[in-house]
Write a structure and sequence with these properties.
single chain; 418 residues; alpha+beta; Outer membrane efflux proteins (OEP); four-stranded antiparallel β-sheet; two-stranded antiparallel sheet; 6 strands; 10% strand; elongated
């Protein structure tokens, strides 16, 4: 069993390409232009695709970001429209035409509604809150797109590196198979030992084929997500073992509560409902209608002019029902803000616990298990000659190499860094 652990730790110590620390991405401010990477590098060699290139492709091509940005412009248009002053009326009237052979009475008037109580200003502020909310939705969608790219990138990179590991194991299994064949010819091993070695080698070839079958689907998934479904499969660059710097729960929680788009969107919904309540409260303040005009009475051969002021008296309907509804809605939305904060903290607690567990396992392998196993395995190999390659007894299972191969996941491990 100790040989199995040594071999497994040594193989796990092989370098694996993966992403470095995540870089901040600029928020798109206009509808994206579709882009794709160069088909070939200088000299005709296919270039390696890195995480940064894939992220930029997704930001430029993913249709959901363009939709989110267009909704910002839609919200801006509603904000402009909500604050516009009502247009005036210009009216011309001709009555009693033809009486006594005259044109009758002609007159015209000008009428302008006067909005009071700051209603238009509140309308504009309410929709401006929607504009800011739409901007944070763009930011939220950008995070969602980038996270999706990183998850698919890590999945594909893990399959790519597992394929390399499987090929190394296959070469080692074939070397063991040849060594057992020599031992069988020399009488130091039996035919069941050879059959077990052949079975182990074939098992690893099958595992490699399974990974190879999964690779095209993972690649097409990534290519479609970044908006280039016809992108030619290309090797990925990076190192999975180069993770981000160590995080503390307090710093992550503080950043989440200050910068989370979900919380900012919920806060802006509260702000919008506060303005809606204020709008309902000023609704009973009566608007004015000012009318002024003049005319000429051809029958009497005299002119005239007049001015009028119309005011609605809020005697019975003072918008009480709508005010009460808006107050209840504000209470509801404030509680929803509290719910959003608590839900985020719960998700953070689960994710951070998984992060800490993974970090502890990584440190144990890096600082304890791998150095000791590497050294022990080197000493173990140093004492062997090509004719002394041991054969695992049949009573102990499929052999060291086979059990190590079964420990490798067929696909990327759950919780791969994003």
């Amino acid at each position: 069993m100790w040989k199995t652990a040594i071999l497994a730790c040594l193989m796990l110590a092989l370098p694996i390409d993966g992403p470095g620390p995540a870089r901040a991405q600029a928020l798109p401010t206009a509808l994206p232009t579709r882009t794709r990477p160069a088909a070939t590098a200088p000299g005709g060699a296919a270039p390696l695709l890195g995480l940064a290139e894939l992220e930029q492709m997704a930001l430029n091509n993913n249709p959901t970001l363009g939709q989110a940005i267009s909704r910002v412009d839609q919200a801006r248009g509603r904000a402009v429209q909500a604050g516009l002053y009502p247009n005036p009326y210009l009216v011309y009237t001709d009555s009693n035409a033809g009486v006594a052979g005259t044109a009758g009475q002609e007159y015209s008037f000008f009428q302008q509604p006067i909005v009071t109580g700051g209603k238009l200003r509140i309308n504009r502020q309410r929709y401006e809150a929607e504009v800011e909310e739409a901007r944070w939705i763009v930011q939220e969608q950008q995070y969602r797109v980038l996270n999706g790219v990183r998850l698919r990138y890590c999945d594909l990179l893990a399959i790519q590196e597992l394929l390399d590991l499987r090929r190394d194991i296959i070469r080692l299994a074939e070397d063991v198979e040849r060594a057992v064949q020599e031992k069988v010819r020399s009488g130091h091993a039996s035919e069941p030992d050879l059959l077990m070695a052949q079975y182990t080698a074939e098992h690893h070839r099958l595992a490699e084929e399974e990974l190879g079958d999964r690779y095209p689907g993972a690649w097409h998934n990534l290519a479609a997500f970044v908006g280039c479904p016809d992108l030619t499969p290309t090797a990925l660059s990076g190192r999975l073992e180069d993770g981000p710097t160590e995080l503390s729960f307090e710093s992550v929680q503080d950043h989440l509560l200050r910068a989370s788009p979900e919380i900012r969107i919920a806060e802006l919904k509260v702000r919008g409902q506060e303005l809606s309540l204020r709008r309902e409260q000023v609704e009973p303040i009566p608007d004015l209608i000012v009318r002024g005009g003049g005319g000429y009475n051809a029958i009497r051969q005299s002119g005239f002019g007049y001015g009028r002021l119309y005011v609605e008296l809020p005697l019975w309907n003072r918008n009480q029902g709508n005010i009460r509804t808006a107050e209840a809605a504000l209470f509801d939305i404030r509680r929803d803000l509290d719910r959003t904060r608590l839900a985020l903290l719960q998700r953070l607690a689960r994710s951070f616990a998984h992060y800490q567990a993974s970090l502890h396992i990584m440190r144990r392998y890096r600082d304890k298990l791998l150095p000791a196993s590497r050294r022990a395995f080197e000493l173990y190999l140093r004492g062997l000659s090509p004719r002394e390659i041991p054969v695992q007894p049949r009573g102990e299972g499929d052999g060291v190499l086979h059990r190590f191969g079964r420990a490798l996941p067929v696909g990327p491990a759950r919780g791969a860094p994003a």
